[in-house]
Amino acid sequence: MPAPQNLFKAALKRGELQLGCWLGLADPYIAEISASAGFDWLTIDAEHAPNDLRSIVAQLQVLAARNSHAVVRPPIGETWIIKQLLDAGAQNLLIPMVETAAQAQELVDAVTYPPHGVRGVGSALARASDFSGVADYLTTARAQICLLVQVENQKGMAALDDILKVDGIDGVFIGPSDLAADMGFLDQPNAPEVKEAVTGAIKTIVASGKAAGLLTLDEGLQQECRALGASFIATDIDVMLFARHMRAAAQSASDRLGAV
Questions:
Q1: What is the mean pLDDT of the chain?
Q2: Which of 119, 167, 150 is nearest to 43 (CA)?
Q3: What pTM was estimated for this model as a whole?
């Protein structure tokens, strides 16, 4: 029996639009609610959210029963943490701050078993193999792993063409906020210079044949990047959605009842 088919990876390969949302509240209850909302993919974020391996596993378990695909973002693209996340059952990884082709190649090696890579062979212990229930896991796992790299500063943008040449990278994700800061536009991801850089990168990624993606709450930029061929676009963040609606609910209650 082979490793489970990665439907998210297959959809990206076909160029089908996949709409996503960021999960930063680090809670399986929130993940379950989010997974019933209709998003194609949900990013379990461990870079800027208080997620650890156990909380990530809990959310992977919840999402496995739903139709939204889990994408896990580790805090850093190190082999040791990638190994843990893969063994925990993550099939889709989004690696932050990729700046060179050499770094991209190291990530490919990290998701690949020897002799072609360096992923540790511990599948007998792993949720990914259904605890040894997937007999052919070692020989079929790599084909179902979707490796997405995040380019989000000027050094990475300068190396984008070389990063795109690395075999085994399934897609490149542009991070407008970090890119804006690195370009001198801190907290100004909507600056014209930043948008020009983002859309230029999307064009380059699409032209390479790899999947292009981004996270932006700017609806105009979402539409522009989609028109350019971006195929995995995150349009919102659970933390911001929750905070915004909680504040609005409190204000609404105050407006209705405060003067009574």
A1: 97
A2: 150
A3: 0.96
Task: Report all structural domains of the chain as residue ranges with CATH numbers, in order of start.
Answer: 7-257 (3.20.20.60)
Backbone angles phi, psi at 27, to 5 degrees: -145, 130
Distance CA 185, CA 26 (A): 29
- List, for residues 77-105, the tens digit of each pLDDT value: 999 999 999 999 999 999 999 999 999 99
Nearest to 208 by CA among 15, 6, 8, 18: 15
Q: pLDDT tens, 131-189?
A: 999 999 999 999 999 999 999 999 999 999 999 999 999 999 999 999 999 999 999 99
**Cα gap 187→173, rounded to integer Å:** 19
Judge whether 129 and 151 are in contact, CB under 8 Å: no
DSSP state of 5: P
Q: Which residues pair with 89 in a beta bridge?
A: none
Q: State which amino acid sits at residue 124.
A: A
| 116 assigned to active site | no
Which of 48, 69, 116, 245 is flagged as catalytic?
A: 48
H/E element, 153: none
Tell me the one-letter amino acid at 254.
S
